[in-house]
Specification:
The longest helix is centred in the last third of the chain and has 18 residues. The protein is α+β, with helices and mostly antiparallel strands and about 230 residues long. A hairpin with a 6-residue loop joins β4 and β5. The protein has 7 helices and 12 strands. The protein has a 7-stranded antiparallel β-sheet with strand order 1-2-3-4-5-7-6, with no helix packed on it. Strands 8-10-11 form a 3-stranded antiparallel β-sheet. The mean pLDDT is about 95. α3 packs parallel to α5, α4 packs antiparallel against α5 and α6 packs antiparallel against α7. It folds into 2 domains: about 80 residues, Phosphorylase Kinase, domain 1 (2-Layer Sandwich); about 150 residues, no CATH class. Helix content is about 40%, strand content about 20%.
Length: about 230
């Protein structure tokens, strides 16, 4: 199916033009070698059928939001390529320029609202900001940014506050950590989540605390969790 830097499906050969960072599998941008130069995302699960089945199941649950799948077997998944910037890169750039994050937050919450309403009782699971894409578009035609989610293998039943609390923890710990701008972003995010997602703030803080505890172990951080939670309350 694949040899070094090439991949073939549906009778067309593709070349891997970019590799993306992923802890759980290998993810590539591929481009067809014919005149069309079509681009897709190739995910190599290295014959982990449980992971690929979980991804496909999550994409089915959030079918109105997931990228279109063009090919899958027990190892590989090929889906639509969504051009744009990751939410993380836009988030980091907004902080560098000290920009007002209101548009980003409103757009993020609006996306989450429609996603959760489409699949009641389910959450996205892996809410790393790299898994959200702000699609290429003309911003003047809309008052919100067009956002897509691209990683569905951790979709599961759960409370939305678990996703939201973990988003708070992630938002505060991207480098540089715990800046005033980040605390401002999180405060506004909490306000919008409570108002528009009907989220329970106490539960959000509970799940944020759990994620901070996990980060202290996983990333060997020394987060003063009580102090951080006081600042976001």
């Amino acid at each position: 199916m694949t040899a070094d830097n090439t991949f073939k499906f549906n009778g067309i050969e593709y070349i891997k033009v970019k590799k993306y960072f992923s802890r759980l599998n290998s993810v590539f941008l591929i481009e067809s070698l014919n005149d069309k130069k079509e681009k897709f995302i190739l995910k190599d699960f290295e014959n982990n059928s449980d992971m690929i089945n979980a991804e496909l199941n999550g994409m089915k649950i959030f079918e109105n939001f997931s990228p279109k799948v063009y090919f899958s077997d027990q190892r590989y998944l090929v889906h639509e390529y969504i051009p744009g910037n990751t939410f993380l890169s836009s988030y980091e750039e907004a902080e560098k320029t000290d920009s007002d994050p209101e548009l980003m937050i409103n757009s993020f919450v609006e996306f989450l609202k429609t996603a959760y309403e489409s699949a009641p009782g389910y959450i996205l699971g892996d809410i790393n900001f790299n898994n959200f894409i702000i699609r290429e578009s003309k911003p003047e035609i809309s008052r919100t940014l067009p956002i897509s989610f691209i990683d569905y293998e951790n979709v599961k039943p759960g409370e939305i506050e678990e996703d939201l609390g973990r988003m708070m923890a992630f938002a505060l710990t991207y480098d540089p950590v715990f800046t005033d701008w980040k605390f401002g972003f999180v405060a506004e995010f909490i306000e919008r989540a409570v108002k528009f997602l009907k989220a329970d703030k106490a539960k959000m803080l509970f799940y944020a605390e759990k994620e901070f505890e996990a980060m202290n172990v996983r990333r060997r951080l020394e987060i003063d969790i009580p102090e951080v939670l006081i600042k976001v309350k």
